[in-house]
Amino acid sequence: SPADGAVKTYRIASIPADGIGPEVIAAGLQALDALARRDGGFTFDVTEFDWGSDRFKKTGALMPADGRDQIKDFDAIFFGAVGAPDVPDHVTLWGLRLPICQGFDQYANVRPTKILPGITSPLAGVGPGDLDWVIVRENSEGEYSGNGGRTHQGMPEEVGTEVSIFTRTGVTRIMRYAFELARSRPRKFLTVVTKSNAQRFGMVMWDEIAAEVAQEFPDVTWDKMLVDAMTVRMVKDPKSLDTIVATNLHADILSDLAGALAGSLGVAPTANIDPERRYPSMFEPIHGSAFDITGKGIANPVATFWTASQMLDHLGETNASARLMRAVEKVCADGIMTPDVGGTATTQEVTDAVCEAIRAEN
Ligand code: ATP
Ligand code: MG
């Protein structure tokens, strides 16, 4: 508390980037400011970096060559969205997000999903409380390791390979992270997803390592699912799931499904975590730059508030994190929502309501 004179200052690197990125990051920073004022025990020192597609069009690079060095000593990275209609997707992906994720070895990608009050799931009869998951995606290897090749291109005998790489180190560390996370949640329950019936090597290794790591967590209950059966369970029995861990590809697909079941892209957050804290972790909304609504003042800021709450958890400010989520849920329940989730409010009206709820809460 401020009484002992020590107000902590967290250094945040903000990268708003493209499209609605700057609009939602501005909203997120207002909420963080309201939380800091309310708490009194911490404050934020935010440095903005003008990296993104505009910079690419002017200079030929989305971020400077020493960009990672410039942000490596920050406490966290608060990221908007990258992508522009006139810049190819692989350029923006490989030019900014991936160099940060890979260079800082953010091997745990964490995607919480729940149905917020006032938001309708496409699943009939499923409301807030019936679906509350966290998907942990292995974010450094697996199917997206970039290994493979093509021979005889364009000829009838053409062959293409796409090789998944699973390492004992990589699987063990993501499994430990997932078990730890499951342990921190009330149900202490983890579902490990693989495809080990059809894929007999790397996937069987996943199952074996899961069983080994489980020994370290006797207080966590866990089960195993094949990814195909998992999609069915997510739709038919969402209440039966809590924390989920899966490979890079499987979790990529499952988290899109999870996002759709929770009602909107505009509310889904993600954290790219270096659990060993050698480097800053990165927090961002899942959605892209959404140029169709850019500048209209109607971008949904909820995904960015939620990822700001993940950032606060990572910084150890768990009270402020919970306070922010309570404020967001109250504002959603009051029907103060943007048009993408059926409301009529602007980004700023939602943001003002969330800041007011932070100030007013007992
Ligand atoms: P990218 O190419 O990076 O995927 P995108 O412009 O295709 O970006 P997406 O994030 O994929 O945008 O979103 C698809 C559509 O969903 C957007 O065009 C927009 O209409 C809507 N959308 C996405 N995020 C939001 C948001 N935060 N608020 C309101 N609508 C959103
Ligand atoms: Mg898109």
Automatic annotation (TrEMBL):
This protein's pathway: Carbohydrate acid metabolism; tartrate degradation; 2-hydroxy-3-oxosuccinate from L-tartrate: step 1/1; Carbohydrate acid metabolism; tartrate degradation; 2-hydroxy-3-oxosuccinate from meso-tartrate: step 1/1; Carbohydrate acid metabolism; tartrate degradation; D-glycerate from L-tartrate: step 1/1
Coiled-coil region: none
Cofactor: Mg(2+); Mn(2+); K(+)
Record has Repeat as a keyword: no
UniProt xrefs under Gene3D superfamilies: Isopropylmalate Dehydrogenase
Keywords annotated in UniProt: Manganese, Metal-binding, NAD, Oxidoreductase
Keyword field contains Metal-binding: yes
Isopropylmalate dehydrogenase-like domain location: 11-354
GO molecular function: D-malate dehydrogenase (decarboxylating) (NAD+) activity; magnesium ion binding; NAD binding; tartrate decarboxylase activity; tartrate dehydrogenase activity
E.C. numbers: 1.1.1.83, 1.1.1.93, 4.1.1.73
Reaction(s) this enzyme catalyzes, per UniProt: (2R,3R)-tartrate + NAD(+) = 2-hydroxy-3-oxosuccinate + NADH + H(+); tartrate + NAD(+) = 2-hydroxy-3-oxosuccinate + NADH + H(+); (2R,3S)-tartrate + NAD(+) = 2-hydroxy-3-oxosuccinate + NADH + H(+); (2R,3R)-tartrate + H(+) = (R)-glycerate + CO2
Protein family: Belongs to the isocitrate and isopropylmalate dehydrogenases family.
Its biological purpose: Has multiple catalytic activities. Apart from catalyzing the oxidation of (+)-tartrate to oxaloglycolate, also converts meso-tartrate to D-glycerate and catalyzes the oxidative decarboxylation of D-malate to pyruvate.
Name this protein carries in UniProt: D-malate dehydrogenase [decarboxylating]
Organism whose genome encodes this protein: Thalassococcus profundi
Lineage: Bacteria, Pseudomonadati, Pseudomonadota, Alphaproteobacteria, Rhodobacterales
